[in-house]
Amino acid sequence: MMIIQENRLKIGIAGKRDIASDNSIRSEIKKTISKILIQENTNSFDAYSAMAKGADTIFAEVVNKEFKQPVKIVLPFDSAEYE
């Protein structure tokens, strides 16, 4: 039996490409996600990112490594434009 959670928490990112991937950025993303999870009283969420270089990929790495959650990739254009 599979239980589908329709109201599952969703967290996404939109950011700059030219952002340094340092520990302070990673720490701030982790702290912000943790705060949201506490406010929403949950441990799990759906993460969304366009996976662009910069903030998007840093967010995805933090979500995977620190929270062990998958990241759903959102394409801002039709997939044919990426081919």
Helix and strand arrangement:
Blueprint: E1 10-12, H1 23-40, E2 46-49, H2 55-67, E3 71-73, H3 79-82
Parallel strand pairs: 1-2, 2-3
Helix pairs in contact: 1-2
Tell me what you see in this structure.
It is built from three helices and three strands, in the order E-H-E-H-E-H. It has helices spanning 23-40, 55-67, 79-82; strands at residues 10-12, 46-49, 71-73. Helix 1 crosses helix 2. The relative contact order is 0.21. The model has no long low-confidence stretch (mean pLDDT 86).
What's the tally of helices? 3
Q: What is the C-alpha radius of gyration, as a whole number of Å?
A: 14 Å
From the helix content, strand content and strand pairing, which structural class follows?
Answer: alpha/beta
Task: Catalogue the unreliable spans.
Answer: none
Helix content: 40-55%
**Which sheet architecture does the biggest sheet show?**
3 strands, parallel
Strand residues, percent? 5-15%
| H-E order | EHEHEH
Characteristic key phrases:
three-stranded parallel beta sheet; alpha/beta; 3 strands; 83 residues
Quick rundown:
The chain is of the alpha/beta class and about 80 residues long.
